[in-house]
Automatic annotation (TrEMBL):
Domain annotation EF-hand: ranges: 131-166, 167-202
Topology with respect to the bilayer: Peripheral membrane protein
PH domain boundaries: 13-121
GO cellular component: endoplasmic reticulum; nucleus; plasma membrane
Cofactors named for this entry: Ca(2+)
Record SUPFAM superfamilies: C2 domain (Calcium/lipid-binding domain, CaLB), EF-hand, PH domain-like, PLC-like phosphodiesterases
Enzyme class, spelled out: hydrolase
GO process terms (BP): intracellular signal transduction; lipid catabolic process
Annotated InterPro entries: C2_dom (IPR000008), C2_domain_sf (IPR035892), EF-hand-dom_pair (IPR011992), EF_hand_dom (IPR002048), PH-like_dom_sf (IPR011993), PH_domain (IPR001849), PI-PLC_fam (IPR001192), PLC-like_Pdiesterase_TIM-brl (IPR017946)
Subcellular locations according to the entry: Cytoplasm; Endoplasmic reticulum; Membrane; Nucleus
Source organism of the structure: Cyprinus carpio
Annotated EC: 3.1.4.11
Protein name: Phosphoinositide phospholipase C
Length: 732
């Protein structure tokens, strides 16, 4: 079913036979490893040539892309040694590093490139029930320790431990015997599926199903319509929608032909994307993209070139690829004089490694519009001499070509994302007019200047060729009054997080002016220079004020990036989210500190009944322990909305914990609220361990019975881990 034609079959056979490939980390680090596709066609095993028989493995589903040729820094560094047609790169999801490989021949490289590509495509195209069968057969092969195609009770007990289930022996034994129809004291394929289904039977879903089933056995189209209207609060079109759901999720042909849904189909629907907490209508592009740029939040990265910390970590073009693939629409380039007249990019005055500016611009040109067609802003911090600035200007012009927006026509408003599709905008210092030669003023966003406050500011000349290419002009922030009367729309100030905090406190009575400023001008905020570990600040305060470009260290996982990912998951992951109307209207300004003073103030009550959890992953450091999970719901938004509540913890059950607890919140400004669901392993002696999370804009939540599909710390899926909740939203 995988091999498309003879060639596809040969590729798979070659991969299953296994072969030596060179793993490359740098020009000097190149090691032979044996790589082999496992029999399940879903995992690849690899080992060092000297390891006797212990293969480490990774799953094909963890691979996001296969790049053929010299498409990574490591492979470019060995380009003179290994031709492009023998080289390829596996790119993994999340923040896991790439795997750069060199085959012995072009034919072998092609077998892996095409073979992995076909396997990935096959996984992409699986429907939900095939995914579930796949998941079950994965567990089967993990449990079948002696590989005889059957599982005895001892292996089944080990499996339960692996699956995070703490079940007493008696109960496990009775389930095992019920599934062992052949009375062979072992479970074969289909018997194991039965065993798994008994294990994962969802009593709470069965109860709900029977509440709406007329005959206790199935849901008719009318039963399902009633459920959709009453519980999921679907209005018009529920009857037609019920039929679509039966068609899409009912596994039994007979039931489907009779317009009925079995409990299996009902569970399939509830665990599908349509049954998830995220409203599918907000998944794709649904916002008006024709308003001025200042009316949008823009997904923005800080010191994009860094893979790790700010002092000694590596700089890499790979960091730009990762950020752009995640829908980032504002990247940062710190340019310094390099040797041989070649400008370099790195974090100045530190030990971070240097990369060539031309490589960065080439990478930006290649990846700028892969995830989103909307404009990309390149924020330039320029520390180069006039000579190297001329080289910079030439590279931007020549490499970006037509993508570069050079027209800075004056108008009273910034252009819209729609008008700037597939355009790259440069932000940096710019002459006011032909005769001006700005020396001495170091603009606010100059982070090197911020870090070296005590040293005298260097006078810097600017080259005209570079100035002419700048669209967003970096300017020093004087006052809101000055901005209101004198600023042009394409002028932009940057604030470090500490300066932003200072404005928030010292201008407290004038916060409306900040909101007003952000209806017309772009504002960029970036992390303090003190955050040398690349940690992040919470972006919510800045978003509440209408700041558009709130730059975060994309390489650092955690709550702050969860919020960023949560906000930007909607609207087609385009990297642009239209700000709420309350932050765009100049005539009726909104103050996030006093949300109840707005004209149309309608606070909402938000009830989350946390019902159960499904197949929560183990905490890595404690592989031998079953988790004690609790769920915390956190609200981020205007200060009045910030809140968190948690359930009690459940002892020793990561497989199907039941909480049945209701948490209640008042939401004063729904348009600005984000909801983060966090699952943790309770530990009374030390800090709880993180298990998974999911963050969603409040306005994208679907009411009713919903599954929250958990993500890892890195923001990648940990399917099929989820929590099952009931959501109710009413006016206060």
């Amino acid at each position: 079913f995988l091999a498309n034609g003879e060639q596809g079959h040969q590729n798979l056979e070659a991969m299953k036979a296994g072969m030596f490939l060179r793993k490359v980390k740098s020009r000097t680090w190149k090691r032979q490893r044996h790589y082999k596709l496992q029999e399940d066609c879903k995992t690849i095993g690899y080992k060092s040539s000297w390891a006797i028989n212990s293969y480490s493995t990774f799953s094909i589903s963890d691979v996001e892309a296969v790049r053929a040729g010299h498409q990574s820094e490591a492979l470019l560094s060995v380009a003179d040694e290994f031709p492009a047609d023998r080289c390829f790169t596996l790119v993994f999801r999340g923040r896991r590093g790439n795997l750069d490989l060199v085959a012995e021949s072009t034919k072998e490289a092609q077998a892996w490139i095409q073979g992995i590509g076909a396997l990935m495509e096959n996984m992409e195209n699986m429907d939900e029930s095939t995914k579930l069968d796949q998941w079950i057969s994965d567990w089967f092969s993990k449990a079948d320790l002696n590989k005889d195609g059957r599982i005895n009770f001892k292996e089944a007990k080990k499996l339960l431990k692996m699956m995070n289930v703490d079940m007493n022996e008696e109960h496990a034994s009775s389930l095992f015997k019920m599934a062992d129809k052949s009375k062979s004291e072992t479970l074969e394929d289909q018997e194991f599926v039965e065993f798994y289904k008994m294990l994962t039977e969802r009593a709470e879903v069965l109860d709900l199903f029977q509440d709406y089933s007329s005959d206790g056995q199935s849901l008719s189209q009318c039963d399902l319509e009633e459920f959709l209207r009453e519980e999921q609060l679907e209005g018009e079109g529920s009857y037609e929608h019920a039929l679509q759901l039966i068609d899409r999720y009912e596994p039994s042909d007979t039931a489907r032909m009779n317009y009925m849904m079995s409990v299996d189909g009902f569970l399939m629907y509830l665990t599908s994307p349509e049954g998830s907490i995220f409203n599918p209508e907000r998944q794709d592009l649904f916002q008006d993209m024709s308003q001025p740029l200042a009316h949008y939040y823009i997904s923005s990265s800080h010191n994009t070139y860094l893979m790790e910390d700010q002092l000694k970590g590596p700089s890499s073009v790979e960091a730009y690829i990762q950020a752009l693939k995640r829908g980032c629409r504002c990247v940062e380039v710190d340019c310094w004089n390099g040797s041989n007249g070649e400008p370099v990019v790195y974090h100045g005055h530190t030990l971070t490694s240097k990369i060539l500016l031309k490589d960065v611009i080439t990478t930006i040109a290649n990846y700028a519009f892969k995830a989103s067609e909307y404009p990309l802003i390149v924020s330039i911090e320029n520390h180069c001499s006039i000579e190297q600035q001329e080289v910079m200007a030439r590279y931007f012009r020549d490499i970006l070509g037509d993508m570069l927006l050079t027209n800075t026509a004056d108008s009273s408003e910034l252009p819209s994302p729609e008008a700037l599709k597939r355009k790259i905008l440069l932000k940096g210092k710019k002459f006011e007019n032909e005769s001006e030669n700005p020396t001495g003023e170091v603009s606010d966003e100059d982070e090197a200047a911020e870090m070296n406050k005590d040293s005298p500011k260097l006078q810097q000349n600017l080259c005209k060729e570079l100035s002419d290419l700048i669209f967003c002009k970096s300017v020093h922030f004087h006052s809101f009054e000055h901005s209101r009367t004198s600023a042009k729309p394409n002028e932009m100030s940057s604030f470090s997080e500490s300066k932003f905090g200072y404005i928030l406190t010292s201008y407290y009575s004038k916060l409306l002016y900040f909101v007003l400023h952000n209806t017309r001008q772009l504002t960029r905020v970036y992390p303090s220079g003190m955050r040398t570990d690349s940690s992040n600040y919470c972006p919510v305060d800045m978003w509440n004020m209408g700041c558009q470009i709130v730059a975060l260290n994309f390489q650092t996982a955690g709550m702050e990036m969860d919020l960023n990912d949560g906000l930007f998951t909607q609207n087609g992951c385009s990297g642009y989210i239209l700000k709420p109307e309350i932050l765009c209207k100049r005539e009726r300004l909104f103050n996030p500190e006093n949300p109840e003073k707005r004209d149309d103030y309608h606070p909402l009550l938000f009830y989350v009944k946390v019902i159960s959890g499904q197949q929560l992953p183990k905490v890595k450091q404690k592989a031998w322990f079953i988790v004690d999970p609790l769920v915390r719901v956190e609200i981020f938004g205007v200060p009045l909305d910030q809140a968190k509540q948690e359930t009690k913890h459940i002892d020793n059950n990561g497989f199907n914990p039941l909480w049945n607890e209701t948490l209640q919140f008042t939401i004063h400004t729904p348009e600005l609220a984000l909801v983060r669901f966090v699952v943790e392993d309770y530990d009374k002696a030390s800090r709880n361990d993180f298990i998974g999370q999911y963050t969603i804009p409040f306005t994208s939540i679907q009411p009713g019975y919903r599954h929250v599909h958990l993500l890892s710390k890195d923001g990648t899926s940990i399917h099929p881990s989820s929590i099952y909740v009931h959501i109710k939203i009413t006016e206060q």
